[in-house]
Amino acid sequence: MPVSVRNMLDAKGRNVISVSREKTMGEVATILNQNRIGAVVITSLEGRIAGIFTERDLVRCVAEQGAAVLEKPVSTAMTTNVVRCREDTTLNELMEMMSSGRFRHVPVEDGGKLVGIMSIGDVVKARIREVEQEAEHIRAYIAG
Ligand code: AMP
Fold this sequence. Notes:
It contains 5 helices and 5 strands; from the N terminus they run αβαββααββα. With 144 residues, it is of the alpha+beta class. It has a single domain (5-143), classed as Roll (CBS-domain), CATH 3.10.580.10. α2 links the parallel β1 and β2 (39-43). The two termini are 22 Å apart.
């Protein structure tokens, strides 16, 4: 069975830091720092995904517009065309999404609602585990 997003969420948990579109970029910077994360998902009151805002967006805004941008709502700079995955998405499919889209975060959606998030760190961890297990199987096969 290929490794799925469901397997990965079972291991790491389903907690996602989400904010409303009115939060300022300064407030979001504090949230990213306090939680030691690289992205927040912006959700509507119903829990639907409205956008994603990452540390890269923050750096771009400050570099282009200066520190005054930190007073602006996150909705003015978030990416609204969010690539999402589902719990039955495979690890390989997730790697392909991140690689071809050149981003490091993919929210997990179920029934139109946000139910988790996958980061490049989660992907690397799961892939290392998968490679180790494959090597273990091969060693057992050769020994047996
Ligand atoms: P990241 O590498 O995740 O920091 O994101 C790099 C850029 O891609 C930023 O502009 C993000 O807003 C955007 N981004 C991150 N994740 C996604 C995603 N799942 N779908 C679409 N854009 C994204």
